Structures are given as structure tokens and as C-alpha cells.
Amino acid sequence: MTLVSPAQPDHAYRLVSVDAEPEHVRAAMGRFPSGIAAICAVVDGVRTAIVASSFSAGVSYAPPMVMFSVQKSSTTWPTLRRAARLGVSILGSTQSDACMQLASRSRDRFDGLATTETEAGALLIEEATMWLECEVVSTTPAGDHEIVVLQVHGMGVADDRVPLVYHQRRFHSLHAIA
Length: 178
Ligand SMILES: Cc1cc2nc3c(=O)[nH]c(=O)nc-3n(C[C@H](O)[C@H](O)[C@H](O)COP(=O)(O)O)c2cc1C
Hints:
By secondary structure, the chain is mainly beta.
């Protein structure tokens, strides 16, 4: 595997082998900014969540579809994927703590977080910037992850909020430049 390094003294870019070191790949990929999706449902009466920066919107508009990739090692996904409907909450710029809590392996992921359950069991995080109610339509293996395509059955937006942005392992807020 190769990686484009910063400009060399001769101002040419060159490709550097990173030998597929996962940490190098992760650091390089982290230069791509993303939003943060909290994917949640109530499964067997228990609020269940994972957080995904791999979330991507606009995969299809008719019908509306979105996607994310989940680690094959995830212990939560096998439970979450059993839900008939998944809630997707695109977190807002005030929700970086909520993001870390929802991704935690040691804390109660929902302690102190306000949520709303839909009739179909999807779980939405309050104070997010956008909410979707989705159904899993396909899962495709992709290396150490699985790509999950979701069909959107319901959506809502909060026009007055700014999304949380994840870039180089830090949280940011958006500001318009044009
Ligand atoms: C900012 C951030 C982004 C993440 N993005 C992803 C992702 O895209 N896919 C994924 O599988 N896990 C992602 N995670 C990790 C999961 O949210 C969660 O921490 C992990 O699944 C917990 O392990 P478990 O599934 O075994 O409970 C992310 C975590 C953080 C903090």
C-alpha cells in the first residue's frame, strides 16, 4: 500500500509505502473530514448504540439511502442489526462529549442523554442536527469492516444547529467561508 507524502524538496509528491500498517492508514484517512452519526435502536428493551464517522449521506436519493462501515470486530453491531429500524442522529457541534460516551466501551452509553424512541424502535438522540429512521437493506464485507446500506424511511432536520465535524481525531465546528 502506498501513501502520498508531503511535498519533497523538489516540490514533487511521492508515494511512500506504508506496508498496510493500520495505524498509518487510519492517520491518513483521518485527514478526510466527516460528520458523526449515532446509530441507535432499542433492542430487546435495551438502548443500543454505535457511533460512525464512516457515515455517508446521499448514496441514493430515490429511494433515499445512506451508508456506513462497521468494524467486523464490533460486539455491538450483531445486536443492533437485529432492530427492525435504526435511528441515525447526525450529531451537533455541542455533542462531542455525547459522541465519546455513545462510543464508549466502559461507560453507560446513554447515561444522561435525552433520547426519543420511534414506534418502530429506532432511537434518536435529542439536540442532533438531523435524524433518520432507517432499515438495513444490504451488508457487504470490505476488509476488516462491513459496509452497511440503509434505506431511509423517515427524516427530520434542525435548521438552527451546526453539525459536529471529525478531523484528524479531533472535533471541530463548521463555519462558512463563502
Ligand atoms: C469519532 C468516532 C468515530 C467512530 N467511527 C466508527 C465507524 O465508522 N465504524 C465503526 O465500526 N466504529 C466506529 N467507531 C467506534 C464505535 O463507535 C464504538 O466505539 C465501537 O463499536 C465500540 O465497540 P463495540 O462495537 O464492540 O461495542 C467510532 C468511534 C469514534 C469515537
